[in-house]
Amino acid sequence: MGMLDELLNSQNAGALHQLAKNFGVTDGDAKNAVSSLLPALSRGVRNNAATPDGLGSLMNALNKGNHQQILEHPEALDRQETITDGNAILGHLLGNKDVSRNVAAHAAQDSGLDAGLLKKMLPAIAALAMGSLSKQASSVGVTNRPGSDQNQADIFGQLTSFLDADKDGSVLDDVMGMARKLF
């Protein structure tokens, strides 16, 4: 199951409803926002996971934080610490605020939602994405054992499968498609 499927499945309807409530939009608009913003966040995760240091940082974040709690307790989306954490996630995944603005602008074209609203929603959606990734990683037993090349290969394989948007076995076409949308 991909990250988008995970976030949009019926078990996580509470998280989407809370997101909608927090930003004064309908549940359908929240779903559109997630669907429009998540490809850029997934690309950021893929880019981070493509290097040993980036993969280590991602695994450290997944192991340290209790990110999947955001899916289990969506009311936490309203807390300042969740938004702060989401902004930190965005910093790692997207790099800087200019990229975040570009992501929001492109997502606005796809979703029909206001770019300013999407920019405000980005940290919460980043927290949800990390929660989804954390849940998926824990469900397949991914753990961080430093120094284990086999474990890193297993993790990268799982993340690649998890982030393959069109499920064709290759993330290259997904990365290229997202890059075309962003630039």
Describe this structure in words.
The protein has 183 residues and is mostly helical. The chain has one domain. The chain is 75% helix and 0% strand. It is built from ten helices and no strands. The longest helix has 25 residues, at 115-139. It is globular and about 40 Å long. 38% of the residues are buried.
Total tally of structural domains: 1
Shape: globular
Kindly state the mean pLDDT as a whole number? 75
Radius of gyration: 15 Å
Sequence of secondary-structure elements: HHHHHHHHHH
In which range does the helix fraction lie? over 70%
Spell out the key features of this protein.
183 residues, mainly alpha, disordered C terminus
Q: What is this structure's SSE topology?
A:
Elements: H1 3-8, H2 13-23, H3 27-49, H4 52-64, H5 69-72, H6 80-94, H7 97-111, H8 115-139, H9 149-163, H10 172-182
Task: Summarize this entry quickly.
The chain has 183 residues and is mostly helical. Helix content is 75%, strand content 0%. The chain is built from ten helices and no strands.
